[in-house]
Each structure stands twice: as structure tokens, then as C-alpha cells.
Specification:
globular; about 475 residues; 17 helices; mainly alpha
């Protein structure tokens, strides 16, 4: 029997850097400053959250990059966790990607993209009589059904695009990336050079020593920052398609995350230079507003609103496209390892995992109906940082287990940097259970649902082996 076809290694370092940035910069840079303002009530504390969130993300990325250099292959952390722990734990991660982490990311991005589209072209409400229909008093699948249905259509259209071949999806991402960079540069320059008076208490560093912000509220605000930084790990999912992956993945992750940190700091400084903290809190309390839109409205009026709405739409489209492209690869790797449905591991005539992309799109569409943007993002951040912490712990394990293994890249500042990241993941886990038990419970339930699924596949595989 002939061997299954392999993925082609066609992507270089430049694309890896672009891909990391495109996976990260999405809706968070436009929306998440408002909930931070409501939680912290201080521009200095908000900026500190972005700095600390970026540093923690960079620590995690640097730790992950050492594993990527050693174990680069399609599937990313799924492959790493199998090597570090066992097939069960790696399956649980892959299952969690499918059940909540990657698919909820896709759902959240599609939701924001459609909201931006709605500010340009009003999307009619559909089935308004079912707005109050609820499942357990938590989920309202038919609320804003017109927007949700449009989000589902966007997910499936981009899924079909990526099923047509990697290069078409990759070039779409590159084009969107350069448009987004130009748009964010305009906002940064306009915000930081405006002649408007500085808002009261703008960057008053004395607030950092006031004691008004607790560790718990700081952690809660960090959930918003981590959503904005989420996505850096996705490049590992396509390790089998990157040239010289053991060198290019670590470099690409480190460079990409550092660039995003700088961009986020500048963008949020521009926001707070234009709008006061009370104004940003009002945006959060309104529920249906986006902070970036209100900032640009203050600068340029209605024309500015159209500009920022289009930019948010394009930015989110780029991040959504990148998330769909990479997200299907772990399920492909799981299927090749006989830990998922066999059809998921097949390449289509364009040499991409078409079935994996299709099923990912279907489940992400179901999640669109399950909740609000904030429900989805808080749930997936809680879930993903369980595995981020476990992956970073693997750096310690493999340093001890495989001391002589070739490491093209090593974590700088080891073991301090990796240890700090792991400790932070533990703190985030505990704080989310205390402060947001509903999102934590839903996330844990979806993760643990993978346990019986694993044993079903293991039993089936043992039966096949016996035959």
C-alpha cells in the first residue's frame, strides 16, 4: 500500500512572522480596552495590563518556541504534548481545540466581523419572536439571529476558500495583513498627535500606588488582554508546511509576538489620549458599542466611523481566515494518529485537509448560536491556558528527559521565564473559577467530555489491531 500524501513545505520565515501577527491582531485591539476600563478605572493600570499580558504571552511564546524547534510538525501543541506526556493528554488537548478553544475563537471573530458589517450595512433581524427562547437560562440561540446567521455564512465561505488550497488562503491573509497595518498606523498617528486636550488623569502613574486595584481584578482584566494576544501558538499547527521549520517557527513566533506588543501599546495609548476612562466605561456599559469606533468618531465624525468599521471588518477577516486555516491541522494530525475520525486525516485534491476544515467550520457555526462574544472569549481563554501551562511545563520535563537532544533554539532566561509563565497560568485558572464560575464550568465540561471519546477511539483501534 502506498504511503499517505504529505503536506508540502512551501512557507518561509517572512510568512511565519506575518502569520503569527495575523493570527493575533483581531477584535481584541478594538474592543477589549472598554472592559479593562470598567475593571481598573485607570489609564496607567490599563497600559500595565497590556504590558504584563504581552510579557507573559512572550514568555509563553518563547517557551513554546523551544518545543517547536525540537518537535516541529503539523499539529503544533498536539504533537508536543504527545511527546511530553502521552497520547491521552495530547488527545484531550486536540479535543479541546475542536470543542471549545479553536472553534470558539473562530466563532467569536466571525461574530465581531458581522457586527462591524452591521454598522455599515444593516443586517435585518430574523425570527425576532424567538429572541427569548433559552436553553437552561444561559444560551439564547435566536437572539440577534440575523447577525449570527451571517457569521455562520462567513465561517463557511472562508472554510471553502481554504479547502481550495493553502496558497490561496495564505495570499488572502497577506493582503489583509498589509491593509490592517496601514489602518492601525493611521489610528496611532491621529490619536497621539491630536490637538484635543488630554483627558483628566491620563497616564497618572501615581494611581499605580493607590492600592485601588486588587490582584483579582488585575487577573480579570488580563482575560481581556489574553484574548487580544490569543493566536500566537497557531503557527505551530502548520509546522509540516514550513520550510526549515525548526529554525523558522521559533524565530517567527518571537518576532511576531514582540511586534504585536509594541502595536498594542501604541494603539491603546492613542485610544486613551482621545477618550477618558469614564467615557470608555460608558462604552462598556452600553454593550453594543466598540471602543475603537467611539474613539475615531471623536476624531473624524461619521466618516471616521465608516473608516474604522471597515478596518475592523478587514482586520477580523484576516484573523478569522488565519484561524480557520491553521485550526484544522491538529485534527488532521490526530486522525493520522488514529485518535480521531479517519476521514479527517485525508487530503483533498488540493493537498489540504478538506474534511478537517469542513467539520471545524460546522462546529464553529454551532458555537456561534451558543452565546455572546464575551462568554465565548472568556471560556476559551480559561480553557486554552490550562494547556499552555502544561506545554510550558514540558520544557522542564524534556530538559531532564532529553538533555542531549538537539535544540535549535533555547528559552532565554531559563528556568525563570518558563517558571513565571507556568505560575501565571495556575493563577489565571484559579482566579477564573472564583470570579467567573459559569464560563469556567462550561469550559471544563467541554474539555472533560473528551475523556469518554478517547476511550471509544482507543477501543476501536485495539479492535482493528486484533483484526
Amino acid at each position: 500500500m502506498s504511503n499517505p500524501r504529505s503536506l508540502a513545505r512551501t512557507l518561509g520565515l517572512g510568512y511565519v512572522v506575518i502569520f503569527v501577527i495575523a493570527n493575533i491582531i483581531g477584535s481584541g485591539v478594538f474592543k477589549k480596552i472598554a472592559p479593562m476600563a470598567a475593571e481598573l478605572q485607570s489609564s496607567s493600570w490599563i497600559l500595565l495590563v497590556w504590558v504584563v499580558g504581552g510579557i507573559i504571552t512572550l514568555f509563553g511564546a518563547l517557551s513554546n518556541a523551544e518545543l517547536a524547534g525540537m518537535l516541529a510538525d503539523t499539529g503544533g501543541d498536539f504533537v508536543y504534548l504527545r511527546k511530553i506526556y502521552n497520547r491521552f493528554f495530547s488527545f484531550l488537548y486536540g479535543w479541546s481545540l475542536f470543542a471549545v478553544i479553536q472553534t470558539a475563537t473562530i466563532s467569536s471573530l466571525a461574530y465581531v466581523l458581522t457586527q462591524s458589517l452591521n454598522s455599515i450595512i444593516v443586517i435585518p433581524d430574523i425570527l425576532p419572536a424567538l429572541n427569548d427562547f433559552t436553553i437552561g437560562g444561559i444560551f439564547f440561540p435566536f437572539r440577534d439571529f440575523g447577525i449570527k446567521l451571517t457569521a455562520i455564512l462567513v465561517i463557511m465561505l472562508l472554510t471553502l476558500l481554504n479547502m481550495s488550497g493553502l496558497r490561496s488562503g495564505a495570499w488572502t491573509g497577506k493582503a489583509i495583513f498589509f491593509i490592517v497595518c496601514a489602518g492601525l498606523a493611521v489610528i496611532i498617528i491621529a490619536g497621539l498627535t491630536t490637538d484635543a486636550p488630554r483627558p483628566e488623569r491620563f497616564m497618572d502613574v501615581r494611581e499605580l500606588g493607590s492600592g485601588a486595584v486588587t490582584l483579582s481584578s488585575f487577573y480579570t482584566a488580563m482575560l481581556a488582554a489574553f484574548w487580544a494576544y490569543q493566536g500566537w501558538v497557531s503557527v505551530g499547527f502548520i509546522g509540516g508546511e514550513i520550510k526549515d521549520a525548526k529554525a523558522n517557527i521559533p524565530k517567527g513566533i518571537a518576532i511576531g509576538v514582540f511586534v504585536v506588543i509594541v502595536v498594542y501599546l501604541l494603539v491603546n495609548l492613542a485610544y486613551m489620549r482621545v477618550m477618558s476612562i469614564p467615557d470608555l466605561v460608558q462604552v462598556h456599559e452600553a454593550g453594543n458599542q466598540i471602543a475603537a469606533v467611539e474613539v475615531v468618531r471623536s476624531l473624524w465624525g461619521k466618516g471616521g466611523v465608516l473608516f474604522i468599521s471597515v478596518l475592523i471588518l478587514i482586520t477580523t477577516l484576516g484573523c478569522l481566515n488565519a484561524s480557520i486555516l491553521t485550526g484544522s491541522r491538529p485534527y488532521f494530525a490526530m486522525s493520522r494518529d488514529r485518535l480521531f475520525f479517519s476521514g479527517i486525516g485525508k487530503l483533498n485534491r488540493h493537498n489540504v485537509p478538506g474534511n478537517s476544515l469542513l467539520w471545524q467550520g460546522i462546529w464553529a457555526s454551532v458555537l456561534v448560536l451558543s452565546g455572546t462574544f464575551d462568554q465565548l472569549t472568556d471560556m476559551l481563554i480559561f480553557a486554552v491556558y490550562i494547556f499552555y501551562g502544561a506545554t510550558a511545563t514540558g520544557v522542564f520535563i524534556l530538559r531532564r528527559r532529553m538533555p542531549d537532544a538537539h535544540r535549535p533554539y533555547k528559552v532565554p532566561g531559563y528556568p525563570v521565564i518558563t517558571a513565571l509563565f507556568v505560575l501565571f497560568c495556575v493563577g489565571l485558572f484559579i482566579n477564573t473559577i472564583i470570579t467567573q464560575p459559569r464560563e469556567a464550568l462550561i469550559g471544563l465540561t467541554l474539555i472533560l467530555a473528551g475523556i469518554p471519546v478517547y476511550f471509544i477511539f482507543r477501543k476501536r483501534n485495539s479492535r482493528v489491531s486484533d483484526d
